Amino acid sequence: MAWMIYGANGYTGRLVAELALSRGERPVLAGRDAEKIAAFATPRGLPYRTFDLSDPDAVDAGLRDIEVVAHCAGPFSATSAPVVEGCLRGGVHYVDITGEIDVFEAVFARHEDARRAGVVLLPGAGFDVVPTDCLAAMVAAALPDATQLDLAFQAGGGISRGTLKSALEGAAMGGKARIDGEIRTVPMGWRSREVPFPSAQRRVTSLPWGDVSSAYRSTGIPNITTFAHLPGLDKAGKWSGLGQRILGLPIVQRLGKAAIDTFVSGPGPRRRAGSWSEVFAEATDASGRSASAALITPNTYDFTADSVLRVISGLQAGEVEAGAHTPSTAFGADFVRRLHATKVIEPAR
After folding, report:
1. What is the predicted pLDDT for the residue at 349?
2. Which of 3, 33, 199, 293 would disulfide-bridge 347, Cβ 3.0–4.6 Å?
3. Nearest to 188 by CA among 245, 243, 240
4. Which long-range contacts (CB under 8 A, 24 or more apart) does 49-55 make?
5. Dist CA 227 CA 9 (whole Å)
6. Side-chain half-sphere of 260: how many Cα atoms within 13 Å?
7. Would you give the end-to-end CA distance of the chain in angstroms?
8. Phi, psi of 266 (to 5 degrees)
9. Same domain, yes or no, for 119 and 138?
10. Whether residues 114 and 186 fall in one domain
């Protein structure tokens, strides 16, 4: 059976499609804009479909005869639910590239529905979660009684429209962390620390990131904070209250997203090829013992395209039991080692 990329005319969807073609695959391309989808699919000789996610009947028709859909059309806060619902109705495996905490929680809540439908729901199949989730599982295995998990990344090479729009929505919601097993709202930038990335030690600052949801499902560790090394992020706490209120205004969201559409296009091949990302994970137990690990990956978008295709292949091969999964619960902590040019620095205690 065929598999589909929904949002194939977007930045990451295009990268997934191009990489699939280079590997001899012929996915069905899809989206809601017929002109844009046709313009991308036709020169490549790929089949395509167009349907709007607001129409359940159209979603069902669009997913007919599809085995797996790679959902790449964000912001996922607006687009994930109708695709998940369509997949459950039609018996289609669902994969997306979200990093949005609320989306993870909503998808994980459909675990039993997915089991009954015989489908896999796997959000976060890209950079946002795959490397951190796999590292989290590694350090949790090295320190089974861990009570705290810190996850951090630094990434170079630019950013796409979809990623920025999701970040804009997330900033309006404030910080999030897992505390005593519960997701709680905290100030933006509420914690900072030094992290020994493979290239150098860096100061990182907390931000709301998908692993606040997914890493708990993967490891059971009750206290989880996610961090990034980004210019200016260390000052987030100074304006978090006012900034959150301003960013939450509907007009600010509309204007911000319009500006992103106008001025942001995403990094080109040369910039992606010249950049890389680093991830660090550290688990700590109640006695103060710790286990840590790190990894180096290609540019986040190239990593995501490779990861999505390997997830698709694994689902088509029947490697994963039905239900809602994180990358590591689906394929194991070593899944990240399958990905192109990714180097894992083993857990240390």
Report:
1. 67
2. 293
3. 240
4. 49/4, 53/79, 53/82, 53/83, 54/82
5. 31
6. 20
7. 46
8. 95, 155
9. no
10. no
For residues 54 and 156, membership in a common domain is answered with: no
Sign of CA dihedral 256, 259, 263, 269: positive
Question: What residues are paired with 68 via a beta bridge?
Answer: 3, 93
Q: Would you list the DSSP string of 170-228? A: HHHT-EEEEETTEEEEE-TT--EEEEE-SS-EEEEEE---THHHHHHHHH--SEEEEEE
Q: Which of 293, 97, 70, 72 is nearest to 197 (CA)?
A: 293
Please state the domain count of the chain. Answer: 2
Q: Do residues 262 and 216 share a domain? A: yes
Strand pairing category for 201-206 and 223-228 = antiparallel
Q: Looking at the structure, tell me whether residues 152 and 172 fall in a common domain.
A: yes
Please report which confidence band the pLDDT of residue 253 belongs to, taking 50, 70 and 90 as the band edges. very low
pLDDT tens digit sequence for 14-63: 999 999 999 999 999 999 999 999 999 999 999 999 999 999 999 999 99
- What is the rounded distance in angstroms from the CA atom of residue 90 to the CA atom of residue 25? 23
Please answer whether residues 207 and 228 qualify as being in contact, where contact means their C-beta atoms are separated by less than 8 angstroms: yes
Structure tokens at 286: 């109640």
Spatial distance between the Cα atoms of 201 and 193, rounded to a whole number of angstroms: 10
> In the numeric block, which tokens belong to residue 197?
């990335």
Residue 202 and residue 264 share a domain: yes
Please give the structure tokens belonging to residue 254.
Answer: 């509309």
